[in-house]
Design goal:
Length: 395
């Protein structure tokens, strides 16, 4: 008998959080109503009005929510990543909106104007005892300039056309060789969406997945005797879409940022190219825009999303540290600037089993569950990055 696969439980016990590092419409104020001062007085209901012209004033609708220090009677768990035609932008503590003022409102105030659609969503009410502030996102409708949308559509078409009949084989190669060592995707969600309608996946992310898989072209029996398609060309298409997607970033945008960093250098190129450093800095900025430097453990978002946000933050963290020490430049992530909790094996095992999902056929039998050795490699890489951080501080 060969060596037995280590159990997830064993890793969970070994990798508990022991790091030394520091671990909802538009806000327009209505006239004061007695209910704002006395909670026993019913809150008003202001009927919604529609305005067609862009120069009309907005109308409002009040809906119950939690205020400062209050917990909603029935907390709604909702993903920030799967909003339909909307994007969640994190409101940092240094933004123009005061997070404590936002949290003090007992109602969400929805802006119904025809030319802008934004709302504030609280994901964490804060904790006065520990000094943790309330946290909010601005939810903004995706209304892009026509030329930007055309550019993304054109990139998507070029990516699918260039990958062509090899696309599903490249997906298998990616989850066979890349994902186990660099698990920045939610395997089940990505493959399910790919099986249902691949065009709904970010073009930049699709192109990056296809592109990195090309490095393993000769490892596939059906492909090894044919000439591989050009990785650089495919990743160029992905970057052209990524440039536009950064206007309204989601987790998929950051996934693409992290993956395009691993393009194979050209024969006359080098992995220490200044462009790689710039791309690493771009990934850091994208992660910070998404609020990944705040611990999502207590947030009112879905469980899979909490794990994915943690995975992506720590992937960004070690990308920053390794790029910094490789290029001899200062790190852009300081250890006191985030409180995201340490990764545990449970975070890496979330959404990894596709055995009984309709998308199971897209990967090989042995790739349908968590690769525990690969997950352990990822955890060790994060630990090494923390040690490098100490080296960089004194360099």
């Amino acid at each position: 008998r060969g060596p037995q696969e280590p159990s997830i439980t064993a890793y969970q016990e070994s990798y508990t959080s022991d790091s030394v590092f520091a671990n909802q419409g538009h806000l327009v104020l209505p006239p004061l109503h007695p209910s704002l001062l006395d909670p026993d007085i019913p809150s008003p209901t202001i009927k919604q009005r529609s305005y067609q012209a862009a120069n009309q004033y907005p109308s409002f609708q009040l809906s119950p929510t939690s205020g400062l220090g209050h917990q909603a009677a029935a907390e709604k768990i909702e993903s920030l990543e799967t909003l339909q035609d909307q994007t969640a932008h994190f409101l940092g503590l240094a933004s123009e909106q005061d997070t404590y003022l936002l949290s003090s409102f007992r109602s969400n105030i929805l802006n119904e104007t025809s030319y802008i659609d934004t709302k504030i969503r609280q994901v964490y009410p804060g904790n006065q005892l520990t000094g943790q502030p309330p946290l909010h996102f601005t939810i903004i409708s995706n209304k892009f300039p026509e030329h930007d949308q055309r550019a993304k559509d054109r990139a998507s078409d070029c990516i699918e056309s260039y990958a062509g009949v090899y696309s599903e084989t490249l997906i298998r190669l990616y989850f066979r060789f890349v994902h186990p060592k660099f698990p920045v995707l939610s395997k089940a969600r990505f493959l399910t969406q790919y099986a249902e309608n691949r065009l709904k996946i970010s073009p930049a992310l699709r192109g990056a997945v296809y592109g990195l898989a090309i490095a393993f072209w000769e490892r596939d029996d059906a492909l090894k005797d044919s000439f591989p398609i050009d990785q650089a060309k495919l990743l160029d298409y992905a970057r052209s879409s990524l440039d536009k997607e950064l206007d309204s970033p989601k987790l998929a945008t950051l996934q693409a940022c992290l993956l395009v960093l691993h393009e194979q250098p050209q024969p006359t190129g080098t992995t220490e190219s200044p462009r790689v450093w710039a791309l690493a800095c771009q990934a850091t900025a994208c992660a910070q825009s998404l609020g990944l430097y705040r611990d999502p453990t207590q947030w009112t978002i879905e469980h899979w999303e909490k794990g994915l946000r943690k995975k992506l933050w720590w992937a960004t963290y070690f990308t920053d540290k390794f790029s910094s020490i490789c290029h001899g430049n200062p790190s852009h992530i300081l250890d006191g600037d985030f409180d995201t909790s340490d990764l545990v094996m449970e975070d890496l095992s979330s959404d990894e089993d596709v055995t009984f999902l309709p998308c199971w056929h897209l990967v090989e039998d042995h790739d349908r569950k968590l690769n525990t050795h690969g997950a352990l490699h990822f955890l060790e890489t994060v630990k090494l990055a923390k040690l490098l951080s100490g080296v960089l501080k004194h360099s």
